[in-house]
Specification:
alpha/beta, Inosine-uridine Nucleoside N-ribohydrolase, Chain A, 9-stranded mixed β-sheet, binds beta-D-ribofuranose, binds calcium ion, purine nucleosidase activity, hydrolase, IUNH
């Protein structure tokens, strides 16, 4: 049976890849996409989600803009990482059409009437606002899988903070403190392992077609950013792992723990993972610590390029390429 999901995101290059993966996954019934400000502002995020939907022939899925600023902090976006258009300066044409607002109400409406889960790929502003607006309906949500935070890994916005949780740490705090919904933190400890290396990008390019071209063109900027920033060859694609984990928990392992977050000062955005049970508080989330990155990448490519599975396997299984 398909699981009903809302994908809350801030597209974003890796969000776009996550949407492509989700759309190609028969286990998911995507009820809608809600947009939160993060990598780019809400309007740009909405345009980018629609570009992906058009590419995938799924313009039947509605996109709702949600909260446009974090709960307390000023919005900080990440065009340095994702390009001026949020999709690696690929500058695909805008899709247009009606712009829908009310992302938070959409989440609550669905939570009231259906059994839904949320895959959250951006800051948790929409999620926390839904929780604060109608706690009872919110707590009917079955599960939230959130890409964000870091346990032992260093951050990507400061030594200790990951981008999504750093943009709106107050929203994360609300969710950690008040939500009763099953929560999984897909943090940098596992997503950093997911690198789309130049060999994988070349493989995608050779497969060809509209989706391949889109992926190659949006990741170019991201690859350059990774080289400049941290001398990584290729790009870390965080968000698709949250989708994969939601579909199949066997991609990652982790542990239940009490979670908190720093909301101001030098360590703002740092997730506090109480591995030593110092706070003596009940666990409020599952933190993922280990990932089978090879299994993930096979899944990711296999799902998106189903018709080319034989070529993909031939290349990946050839030890020469180190894939
Ligand atoms: C997260 O931040 C964003 O830049 C990505 O889209 C991802 O959701 C990684 O820290
Ligand atoms: Ca994102």
């Amino acid at each position: 049976m398909k699981r009903k999901v809302i994908i809350d995101c801030d597209p974003g290059i890796d969000d776009a890849l996550a949407l492509i993966l989700a759309i190609n996954s028969p286990e998911l019934d995507i009820l809608g996409i809600t947009i939160v400000s993060g990598n780019v502002n809400g309007k740009k995020g909405e345009e980018n989600a629609k570009k992906v939907l058009k590419l995938m022939g799924r313009e039947d899925i509605d996109v709702y803009i949600g909260e446009e600023i974090p709960l307390v902090r000023k919005l900080i976006t990440a065009e340095d990482t994702h390009g001026g258009d949020g999709l690696g300066e690929s500058n695909y044409p805008k899709v247009g059409g009606q712009v829908l607002y009310g992302g938070v109400d959409f989440i609550l409406e669905k939570a009231k009437s259906e059994e839904i889960s949320i895959i959250a790929l951006g800051p948790l502003t929409n999620i926390a606002t839904a929780l604060n607006r109608d706690e009872e309906s919110f707590n009917k949500i079955k599960e939230i899988v959130s890409m964000g935070g870091a346990f032992k890994s260093h951050g990507n916005c400061s030594q200790v903070a990951e981008f999504n949780y750093w943009v709106d740490p107050d929203a994360v705090k609300e969710v950690f403190d008040k939500s009763n919904v099953k929560f999984t933190m897909v943090g940098l400890d596992v997503t950093r392992e997911i690198v789309l290396t130049p060999n994988y990008i070349e493989l995608i390019k050779q497969i060809g077609g509209d989706v391949a071209e889109f992926i190659v063109s949006i990741t170019r900027f991201y690859v350059d950013f990774h080289w400049e920033q941290e001398r990584t060859l290729g790009c870390v694609i965080n968000d698709p792992l949250a989708v994969a984990y939601f579909i199949d928990n066997s991609f990652c392992k982790g542990f239940m723990t009490y979670l908190d977050i720093v909301t101001d000062g030098i360590a703002i955005g740092q997730t506090l993972v109480d591995v030593g049970d110092f706070y003596r508080k009940a666990p409020n989330g599952l933190v993922l610590t280990d990932v089978d990155s090879k299994k993930f990448i096979r899944f990711f490519l296999g799902r998106i390029f189903k018709d080319n599975i034989k070529d993909i396997e031939k290349v990946i299984n050839n030890n020469k390429y180190g894939m």
